[in-house]
User: Fold Major facilitator superfamily (MFS) profile domain-containing protein from Hydnum rufescens UP504.
Amino acid sequence: MPNQGDPVQPDSPAPHPTQGRPWGLEWRSSVWFVTLVVGFGIAVDVWVYNMIVPVIPFRLNTLGYKHVASKTSLLLFTYSLGLVLSIPPIVWLSEHFGGSRKSIILYGQAFLAGSQVLFMFAPNYGVMILSRILQGISGSVIWTLGLALLCDTVPERRIGQQLGMAMAGLSIGFVAYHPSFALGPPLGGILYDNFGFHAPFILGIALAVADFVGRVLIIERKVSVQWGVDPWGPHQPSQSLEEPSHSAFEMSITESVTQSPRIDQHVGDTSSLKPTSVNVGPLETERPRTLSSWGVLWALMRSSRAMVAVVNTLICGTVFTPKNLQLTLRLHHAWGLSPLKVGLVYIAAAIPTMVAGGISGFLTDRFGPKYIATLSLGLSTPWLMLLILRSHLALFIIALALFMFFLSGVIAPMTTELAATSRGLPGVGYGHVFGAWMLAYSLGSTLGPIIGGPIYDHVRHGWLVLCIMQTCLVILALTLSLMFTGDTAMTHKFGPASSSTKTLIR
Assistant:
């Protein structure tokens, strides 16, 4: 007789709850729940990052500091610094220490709440800087490992759709609190005016705690399958590792899977377990971790598909961020709109981006990342060029909405492409590729304002120059996507490869 605390034993009927069986196992390990939690975490991180922006100058004035603008900019920069510097060690911990991504994510959530408490009670500027660095570290964990955890949970045929839905949190975070409100009555400012300096941080801590609870409730797939519950679906037939898949996404990775069969490193010893009556799909697995950090970097650099996905992410971050930051000035100078009206314009234009990821992800799973990435970039270009015109405000809003909609549609195919590439590179896991994605997007978000601000302020017809420069970057991304993305890319590799790994690093 099996012990009550043991997983489901051989030849048993469908598993029944026992003393050791986690409660709510089905919904806590489900694809929809993990997607919801990951998307909510992304939205919380973006929202908390922006929420305190209008509060910082007032706090610095209260503490008696001068040169408030410069000190505020440095506080914003230290977040990016913490994020960029923490990505490599976080990825290394995730990929080299088996265990659970969830455990590291919980530490990241604790850092997010702790950073808010630290900033709220900061007695001086140095403590403020430390709190922003901690928040950057938490952001790298929430994004990188959150997306990796989602890919661990989601069936390969649905990765694009679920990644797109989770990344909708990015749009929700910006819409809930957009920089265009920085000169008007943002929620953070309203809380500050009516309830004092601590109020915005208390709300941020509450959101971080809610996200923490959601992460605690998640049950990873490697745990749920031991109890006979597979988020890939109980009725999905077990698929041989050598059997080709039918979706465009799965077809792009079939060759690499057959050449490098995967062995799960995290499930533990299950030799004593026999199959349950629940028919589960193949476990998400990891390649043997034989690559050093430099080896992983070299493997990614040798893969044209991975490098193009990273470069296109860098371009999208560079194009998207200054467009947001300069939007207030453009609408004010061209049509005389107040900051509050500018915020309403942005919200009206950004709402469609909330569904862009889900739509492009669904299409990516159906047709492959190459076609959807190329189509999204191509369709965003004419609307970006229309933003140059200073005619009717309604036309500008429509053009802005369509530009943001199609550019947001690039994220799902790019992240899906990275997920597919990681399966074809032995020793490279989801944490590695999403760490590279997060690093690229962060650098783009940093470079965008650095380049866009001076161009708009100091170059004659700065908005025109900025739009032309961004259009050229989008066309470059379009060209790279057309040439290198997907298994049908025109060119498969940058450097030479052995015959046994040609398909792995193309």
